[in-house]
Protein 1
Amino acid sequence: MIGCEVLFKIFYPLISFALKRGGYSDDAIKRKLGKFDTPNFEGEKVIMFHGVSVGEINAIEKLIKTVRAEFSEVKIVVTTGTNTGQEIANKKLGETADLITYFPFDTPSCVKRFLDNVKPDVVLMAETEIWPNFLEGCKQNGVKVFIINGRISDRTFNSYKKLKFFFKPLLNMYSGIFTQSAEDKEKFLSLGANPETTERMNNLKFDITAPKVDIELKKEGRVFLAASTHSGEDKIVFDTYKKLKLKHPDLKFIIAPRHLTRLDEVKNVVRDYVLRSEGEDLVNHDVMILDTMGELGKIFAFADVSFIGGSFNKTGGHNPLESIIFGKPVISGPSIHNFKDIYSIIQNAQAGFVVKTEEEFFQIADKMFSDKTFYEKTVKAGEQVFKDQQGALEFVINKLRKIL
């Protein structure tokens, strides 16, 4: 503990410099030191949620909103470890949480300042977050800490196994460890987690329902949807569509850019198109640009196969479950780090596909439209994935009911 504090003070100028170069503001660094103003939570029950970055915040978004609805009297604090996590938390949870801030540096002084400010009663940490000084500080203050949606990659597990003597006492400081899968549960147990408080909860990201489809889209033939495309991806997907069209004359195409500020860019790629906003359909037209706000989540219902954008550049992909929940298979490019756990599950189940090249993209898409048995098998695999993975949200809510 003391050694950690001394080392932090020695290297703090270098740490601060590196963070600033990485885009962190002075205020963000100050918050990581535990120095920030807090709303008055005196006498209130406080639940703290921690998601280190974008993927984790996406995973716990619905849970946090459900907690707000179920436990209206509690105060909700959300922390992240990264700038991008902070941005998405403010965007999605700004009207839900009572405080959104940064997780503290893991030193005794920073943790103490943070806990003195926030005064949490319960801390729910998404996936795998093990911070020794934070855990010790919570233990000293009688704060219950849980891992939710817990997972350990094979690579991380192999590293942790070599240091089991270090991780075992830390894992036993958690009041509960709730994992995404039976495999993850066994990994935690083999590292020394308490078998009495380690349970499988399934994956929060699968606790979604298909939105009500209260829109109409007349169409003939099958539809290939390119959802949430980013700059550079429009041509890749449209070229693939043109090749598919030669083999499948009935095929229609919808492209939905992630940002409508790119509309002219998309128009220049597809050229011969109709706009959704003009009330056109896919009966007498082959290509449509979805240029309306808030409809994409429902347009998946009209697709047969969906390409999920942000995956042929460095964006890190978007949520493939928005398509699979409607029984529509997905194909993504190789950049999927924002949803890597979801893609791991759906790939293992063969409910969706991640391709590395444009040629591989065409081959998989062509097989989807050519092989009815293959297509139906993929659809059924998606349905089974949801059956296997849902229930996590209610699991956590039930745990909180007992604690609060």
Protein 2
Amino acid sequence: MKPILSIIIPVLNEAAIIQSILSRFQDSTGVEVIVVDGGSEDNTFELAQGKGVKTILSPQRGRANQMNAGAELATGDILLFLHGDTQLPSDYLNIIKDTLAQPKAIAGAFELAIDGDNWSLRLVETMVKLRSRWCSLPYGDQAIFLTKTVFEEIGKYADLPIMEDFELIQRLKKQGKIAIAPAAVLTSGRRWQKLGVFKTTLINQLIILGYYLKVPPIQLKRLYHIMK
């Protein structure tokens, strides 16, 4: 039976969590899962194989290229791009279908919940909610979804080393509504725990500012890794 939804998961050196990621989809109906490895130096690719999912090596490095490769292989009518450290809510398939059925919706994403007890993470979640709903600007860690037809018509992900999700959403906003689902994905707090909430948020905002100032994406990526 042809799947309704194709979940595309770009991964890189995620051997420690890849089996846990894929175990969440063992009993899914109407869903295919595509893992796209970006050239892992550990055994992520091998661990992902034989788990009832499609597993491929991206012909080119970079998350944008990985997601495009997964989308090309996908057979579902709807595509969802999922970060490896992010968990979908229960009943996500029906939530996605209902969200895309909203008037003028061309794409959608979930609200964001961050795994962790720090009060500052709740502040981040609130800011993300306001940004997503009032500015129609969800980020990639919110599990962006859209039909395969729209994805191909819009021109797929741009070949950027960073900010590929931001750039895609900007193009989609010109075509229709970015609908925010009435449910949240749960993402790992490891980034915020590693650097601290303030520093992580500051780095993200500086990269966005650099993007608006037309700093070359390759330089933004170098700056991002230096600041990390």
